[in-house]
Amino acid sequence: MEIADIKQLLEEKIGVGCILDEELQGLQPTLVIHRDFIVPVCTTLKQNEKTWFDFLSCLSGVDYGVNNGFGVVYHLASIPYKTQLTLKVRLDDTRNTTGELPWVYSVSNVWRTADWHEREAYDLVGIFFRNHPDLRRILLPDDWQGYPLRKDYQDAETYHGIPIK
Amino acid sequence: MNSMTTSTAYTPDTEAALQTYKTRMASIGPEEMIINIGPQHPSTHGVLRLEVISDGEIVKEVVPHMGYLHRCFEKHAESMNYGKTIPFTDRMDYLASMNNSHAFVMGVERMLGIANEIPKRIEYIRVLVCELNRIASHLIAIGTYGIDIGAFTPFMWCFRDREHIMNLLEWASGSRMLYNYIWVGGLFYDLPVGFEDRCGEFIRYFKPKLVELDELLTNNQIFISRTANVGALPLAVAIDYGCSGPMLRASGLKWDLRRVDEYSAYPELEFDIPIGKGAMGTVGDCWDRYKVRVDEVKESVKIIEQCLDRLQKELKRRPDFDPRAMVPKKVSPKVQDYYVRAENPKGELGFYFITDGRLDIPKRVKARGPSFNNLSVLPELSRNILIADLIAILGSIDIVLGEVDR
To answer: Are B339 and A84 in contact (CB < 8 Å)?
Structure first.
């Protein structure tokens, strides 16, 4: 299925507002999905027999820079059709306003592999996944402060009283 | 859209999951016990800690803890140019460094738009060294799996044969395990003079050893009893958990990115994709996963023979051939993001690049390690099994912690 067909399918099944934008100039076509619709969009893409994106290759949390906001990028693959699709969710920058973590709904109920990917995105980029079953840090210790893959991350001077610089 | 406005009032609670976990661990039943396996334990194949809630010999629940080998690959990659990141990719899956750098380099070349202009000889050398490295990686998987189960000899035999591959690759690149051999647009050096002959000699030596290995381990009744019908992974679960590589193929699916994506020189090479058939028990059990690796070694041998043949005939070494001729002075792809995937010995290795078009430094590089995803299925596979079987299952997943933790 071409990207235009996928777009049409999603707009028919879920609603016109679910796709905010598309990026077609790159090597891999991308759909930008409204944050609130990511779970129904992923469920449809996985279960619809015309798309069958049954394999989540990769889920990346991205910090686009201070004031540019955050994003989550989903790389889907379909084993029966041998196709790939990229989805993006853009999140507002809350660093200088509320200070709370940006959040998006978890897709770990759609693909179980998203569980650890989302834990990693939470751990390193500081994106919160709502309704995630077990959103603990995964690579860093539980008591780590801050999110190292953010562009404005500053190394701590000490860790448990031990100077580390 | 209006119905969604209420969701903006949501406040993330970052402490809740940790509290739930701590409560779970503190409230185990009177007959249950928490056992920590690792991080310093040979059967965890590195620094992995498994927190096991057990009832006697029965495993009730497994909570993996990783990160002990986290070396900030993604943060490093954001601070240096593409060429300098290649040695870091080598250190991810350090048993298959060539395959890692091949995937990374391929992604950068496609972003630059030079992927189709790479000379054939370079592509064939890349495939040759990658397949040699694939054999080396699988030999470790097979050998250490034997030792997990309690068979010591296969471990020694596999390491003896792997050492020949290490010597060959050291001769080509100057380093035993971490090569930095495959560069963006080319290679570090051409193959040394006489490499093809010595590699052919190794293949002739190695083929009978595979028969011996089958006699020693694959068809060994004790080994079969320990692995057949243990940890059977249904195909649907494998796909759901993002398992790839031998793990996915052992569950019965012919899915190999070398064939699906047809990258590098693979479309011109003849090889089969072995899958698990449940010959000794259930499809997708530990024995199947082991057997797929053994069969893949045989397929890699086939690929190496074809590469050697072509490298000695139509793609022969020429005095004017420069493997660095295509290497760009400055690698700065235009603004884009790109996800590249390739078949590593462990499964689908992916790199996701975001570039801003101005600098020769990527804005973001995310690595999708196959071991990371394959390991995530372990808690699912390890419910109500024996602790001894937990070791058998973990060994059959074949993880490298350098890639799980990055």
So the answer is: yes
Q: Which domains does chain A have, with CATH numbers?
A: 3-163 (3.30.460.80)
Backbone dihedral region for residue B223 (phi beyond 0: left; psi -120 to 50: alpha; all else: beta): alpha
The mean of the pLDDT values for chain B is: 89
CB atoms A142 and B18 under 8 Å: yes
pLDDT at B8: 59
B73-376 has which CATH code? 1.10.645.10
Please give the structure tokens belonging to residue A18. 């679910």
* Interface with chain B: mutation pick from A39, A90, A116, A131, highest number of B CBs within 10 Å: A116
Report, as an integer, the average pLDDT of B27-35.
89
Assign B167 a pLDDT band (cuts: 50, 70, 90).
Answer: very high
- Angle between helical axes of B120-149 and B97-112 (0-180°, round to 10): 140
The pLDDT of B184-200, averaged and rounded, is 89
- Quote the tokens at residue B149: 């189960």
Compare all CA atoms of chain A with the CA of B11 and give the residue at the minimum distance.
Answer: A100
Whether the Cβ atoms of residue B217 and residue B142 lie closer than 8 Å to each other: yes
Separation between Cα atoms, residue A126 and residue A147, nearest integer Å: 5
For the beta carbon of residue B320, count every other beta carbon within 10 angstroms: 5
Q: How far apart are CA B13 and CA B18, in angstroms?
A: 10
CA terminus-to-terminus distance, chain B: 40
Give the separation between CA A86 and CA A11, rounded to whole angstroms. Answer: 17
User: Which pLDDT band, with edges at 50, 70 and 90, does B280 fall under?
Assistant: confident
Q: Does any CB of chain B come closer than 8 Å to the CB of residue A138?
A: yes
The SS3 call for residue B365 is: strand
